[in-house]
Amino acid sequence: MFGSADDSKPIARRFPRRPVRAGKDATGGPGVASFARAYRVPIMIAVLVATVVTTAAVTSALVSRGPPKRPGIDAATLAGTCSAAADKARQDLAGLVVAALSSSASTQQQGSAGLAALASFAPAYLRRTLEAVLARLPATDRPHIVVSQDGHLPEVTAVVGDMQKQFRAAAPDIAFSHIHHTQSAESGDDGFGYMKLSRHFGWALGNVFDRGHPRVIVLEDDLEIAADFFEYFSAVAPVLDADSTLLAASAYNDIGQPAFVADSARVYRSDFFPGLGWMLTRRAWAELGPKWPRGFWDDWLREPAQRKGRAFLRPEVSRTRTFGERGVSQSQFFHQYLSNIKLNAEPVAWGSVDLQYLLKPTYDRALDAAVAAAQGVPASSVVAKDCSALPRPPATGSHPLSVATRAGSLGAAFKVDYGSVGAYPRAAGAFGFIADVKAGVPRTAYRGVVSLQHKGCFVYLVPAGGAPLPER
């Protein structure tokens, strides 16, 4: 593992991935509060079952006594009345059991991440996304699902109701909540989708954080997720919590087409907010929530006033991919840049991956060394090269910038000096990936460097001078 001596302490020890279970006493054993929470649902169910059994017993006893002494009431009427009462008690029991399980799940999941699934006007998209979430729920660190519906479109409401039943049947331990955001018209933005979208995002984030979750994963209703989507976020969460130079983590790579990615276990720092499936901490929300913008929330989050020099985490191989050709963005880049993003198909055993290299001091040193060791070439030259025939080690999640220290085992490493930010699109265009710049930062760049793989070659697009921008 790439790193220096002063960073030798494993991240698993420095930032434990699994916190000690809430409710344990100083010795590590369950305390009284923990015991009460753990057995609350079984006790409630036992009491309710006893009630139904008692009702049934009384019914049987009354019927067995024969006709009552009071005239006008025969045995059949009495039996029917008692049977109806027993049925009503059984129905009440079922409802109370579901409510008790949901309440218990919500309480137990306050220490885990909340998942805010944003829905509006696309019921088919929403169903596809929620079915993927249900199919890919993790074995541990299971999230509280909160579907935030913007408005009251009946078709969307019906999908949420149906999926809620499916979640309760397949994963009764997971809380599933359905909340509604009612749009209020504001002057100057009537009918403007980006304004409505921003208000909904801010409202939903606040609602889910108010439920006590330390982190919230945001998932829009047109995203497909990889098999290890949740495990990826569980893996990067300790780094995000520990490193104050990070603002959020995303599951998406803006230049994640198959031609530019290789290792499904690699994670990078980036100064560009990717969105499209991302996680925010309570600490960050406390800062951003009070000043949440009226519109264009994603570009707002990329501005220096919000970033304050902080970076984001993103994978080399995306854990999300959009299938929403129709939406607020009017499919501006869909066919050319979005539809062909590679969705990870090789689940990673994240518990065995050391992500210590993502901490800023270690990462910055490695970036400086890797770029310095790479061979400088024109963009046209590296585009024509093919390093795929060179020996390559298996994808292990080793430091993404350590190619310069491994004697070319990943093929050759090259750097392309793109000059000024204004000239960056020309260099990026030579490779054929998205080349736009927002708030002075090229997509995926960290300290001005865009890292990618191309035909087995490791490539760095670097700013003027051939080196990363100075550390901030």
Automatic annotation (TrEMBL):
Query: Its membrane topology, per UniProt?
Result: Single-pass type II membrane protein
Q: Which UniProt keywords apply?
A: Glycosyltransferase, Golgi apparatus, Manganese, Membrane, Metal-binding, Signal-anchor, Transferase, Transmembrane, Transmembrane helix
Could you identify this protein by its name?
Answer: alpha-1,3-mannosyl-glycoprotein 2-beta-N-acetylglucosaminyltransferase
Q: What is stated as this protein's family in its record? A: Belongs to the glycosyltransferase 13 family.
Location relative to the cell: Golgi apparatus membrane
Q: Which GO terms describe its cellular component?
A: Golgi membrane
| Residue span of region Disordered | 1-29
Organism of origin: Cafeteria roenbergensis (Marine flagellate)
Instruction: Specify the pathway.
Output: Protein modification; protein glycosylation
Q: Where are the transmembrane segments?
A: 43-63
Cofactor dependency: Mn(2+)
Q: Which domain of life is it from?
A: Eukaryota
Basic residues bias: start-end ranges: 11-21
Query: Where are the compositionally biased (Basic and acidic residues) regions?
Result: 1-10
